[in-house]
Amino acid sequence: MIHISLHPEELFTIGGFTVTNSIVVSVAILLFFAGIGVIMRRRFALIPGMAQSIAESGIEALLDLMDQVLDDRKKSEKYFPLVATIFLFVLVSNWFGLLPGFGSITLQRGEGFEPLFRSPSTDLNFTLALAIISVLAINIIGIGTIGVAKHMRKFFDVRGPVEFFVGILELISEFVRIVSFSFRLFGNIFAGEVLLVVTQFLLPYILPVPFILMETFVGLIQAFIFAMLTLVFISVAVEDHDEHEHIPEKRSSY
């Protein structure tokens, strides 16, 4: 029977905290990246091997892409850890659900069985939390760069009725941004996994293959969009709008 559930399955509780199958996978991904980081740190060499060369090439490519948005290598290097972490974490979360046998490992709960693993990106709680973290980071970076007063003036500008109305729209857009971030990622990845489940039920081994390739590409694109939108909003947050408000008038020499 096809098992499709919008909400993650509860596995057990620890001190009143419910652990779901998506949390288990999220922790596994976190430990995976932590292990990779420790290994690469210990094996770092001035003359890089194949793995280090590939990693350095990827880092340089992402920095070059960030330079096109920020137009400043120092800023790119400064915000690289946040943008790269979001991209890699979302990418692996999207691709985890495509692994063979990922959803077939189950635990018996009462009279039924529930999957032990679930892709974090198919859990709205995960995408919502990630969106909140992204938006909070954007605003914290903005405050740290241009100051509290100038940053908050974007949302609460009392210099005039038009400025005040625009500021309220900016404040509303922050909450809309959270909804957009979370539902875009959740909707695309969840719909893709539902499609794979249905095709596997109709014609196993043959029909799902092209859809797996398509969902691999979709997972990559969604991770890229999430990271790049975060980067674009950071570039807007660190811009001092006061510098562009007053344009000096040109006086005629005649």
TrEMBL record:
MF terms (GO), sorted A to Z: proton-transporting ATP synthase activity, rotational mechanism
PROSITE patterns (alphabetical): ATPASE_A
Lipid bilayer topology: Multi-pass membrane protein
Keyword Transport appears in the UniProt entry: yes
Protein species of origin: Candidatus Ryanbacteria bacterium RIFCSPLOWO2_01_FULL_48_26
A Pfam family the protein falls into: ATP-synt_A
Gene Ontology process terms (BP): proton motive force-driven plasma membrane ATP synthesis
Gene3D superfamilies the UniProt entry points to: ATP synthase, F0 complex, subunit A
Listed InterPro entries: ATP_syn_F0_a_bact/chloroplast, ATP_synth_F0_asu, ATP_synth_F0_asu_AS, F0_ATP_A_sf
Recorded name of the encoding gene: atpB
Transmembrane region(s): 12-40, 79-106, 126-149, 185-207, 219-238
Keywords from the named record: ATP synthesis, Cell membrane, CF(0), Hydrogen ion transport, Ion transport, Membrane, Transmembrane, Transmembrane helix, Transport
Primary localization: membrane
Family in the record: Belongs to the ATPase A chain family.
GO cellular component: plasma membrane; proton-transporting ATP synthase complex
Domain of life: Bacteria
Protein name in UniProt: ATP synthase subunit a
Compartments, record wording: Cell membrane; Membrane
Functional description taken from the UniProt entry: Key component of the proton channel; it plays a direct role in the translocation of protons across the membrane.
